[in-house]
Amino acid sequence: MSPLLLIWLKFAACVCVIGVAGVRLSRYGDALATLTGLSRNWIGLILVATVTSLPELVTGLSAVTVAAAPDIAVGDVLGSCVFNLAILALIDLVYREKVMYCVAASEHVLSAGFGVILLGGVALVLLLATQGQIPTIGHVSLASVAILGLYLVAMRALYKAEQRHAGSHVAARSEMTLKAALWGYGVASAVIVGAGIWLPFIGVELARIMGWSNSFVGTLLVAFATSVPELATTWGALRIGAVDMALGNLLGSNLFDVVILALDDFAYLPGAIYQQVSPIHAATAITACMMSGAVVVALAYRPVSRVWHTASWASLSLLAMYLLNAVIQYRHGL
C-alpha cells in the first residue's frame, strides 16, 4: 500500500472514530443535562457544546506538546469556528418549516455577540504577535489570560440571561438512568481522547506527503475532523425539531474553542503560541468574526424570505465567507 493511500485511510478512520464517539458523547451529555431539568438553550450552549468540542481540546493539546505542531493546533481551533458557522448555513438549507433565524430564541444574539468579541480579539492578537507587541508572563501570553477572563464573563452573562428566561424552554425527559449516562459519557470521552491524540500526527504526516503547510491542514482538514461531532449533533437536533439546541451547540462550541486556544498557549512551553504560528491564521479569525457578526444581524433582523427558495441571505453569506477562507488557506498552503 502506498504511503499516500495509507495516510488518507488513517485520516478517514480517525474521522469515523471521532464522528461515532462524538454522536454517542452528545447523546449522553444531553441525557445528563436533561436529568437536571435545564433548557435546550442551556444544554446546547454549555454541556453539549463543551463535549462536542472535546476533540479540538485533545487534538490541540496533543499538537502543541507531543507533536510539536502549533500551526495545526491554532488552525484546528479557528478552522472549527468557521466550519461551525458554515454548519449554521446548512441548518437553514435543510430546515424547511421556516427560516431558522425566525424561530430561534433571541438569547442566541448574546452568545453570537460574545463570539464576535472573542474572535476579533484573537485576530488582533495574531496580527500584533507578528510585531512582538504582546506581553507575556513566562511562556504564556497575557492575551490568553484575557481570553479566559472574557470567557468567564460571557458564561456569567449567558447564565444570567438564561435565568431570566427559565421555564420558557423545558428539555424533554430522558429514559436513560444517571449511571448509564455517566458510564457512556466516560467511554465515549476516552475514545475521543485517543483519536484526538492520534489526529495531529496524521495531520503532520499528511502535510509532509502532500506538500501542504501545517496551517492549511489544521484549518481545513483537521478542523473538519474535529467538527464531526458538532455536525452529527446538529443533524440529530434538527431531526427532533430542536433548533435552539442545534444553534446553541454551534455558537457555544465557538466560545469554548477560543478558550482551547488559550489552553494550548498554556501548554506550549517554547513560548507564546501566537508568535510561533503563521500569520495566515489571522485571516481565519477575521472570517469567523465576520460570520459571527452576520449571525448577530440575522438574529436581530429575523429575515422571513429565502433566496431562490434555498436559504436566507444570511446563510448564503456564511457559506460564501467559508469558501473564501478555504480559497485563501488553499492558496497560502500550496
Structural key phrases:
single chain; 334 residues; mainly alpha; A middle domain of Talin 1; two-stranded antiparallel ribbon; 13 helices; 1% strand
Textual characterization of the structure:
By secondary structure, this protein is an all-alpha fold. The protein has a single domain (3-168, 176-333), classed as A middle domain of Talin 1 (Up-down Bundle), CATH 1.20.1420. It contains 13 helices and two strands, in the order ααααααββααααααα.
Short structural summary:
The protein has helices at 3-35, 40-52, 54-65, 70-94, 100-103, 108-129, 142-164, 178-210, 214-226, 228-239, 243-267, 281-301, 313-333, and strands spanning 136-137, 140-141.
Low-confidence segments, given as residue ranges, are none
CATH class designation? Mainly Alpha
CATH architecture: Up-down Bundle
The N- to C-terminal Cα distance equals: 25 Å
* CATH third-tier fold name: A middle domain of Talin 1
Largest sheet: 2 strands, antiparallel
Give me the CATH superfamily: NCX, central ion-binding region
Give the count of helical stretches: 13
Per DSSP E runs of 2 or more residues, the count of β-strands stands at 2
Name the average pLDDT. Answer: 86
Radius of gyration from the alpha-carbon trace, in angstroms: 19 Å
Q: Which strand order spans the largest sheet, edge to edge or round the barrel?
A: 1-2
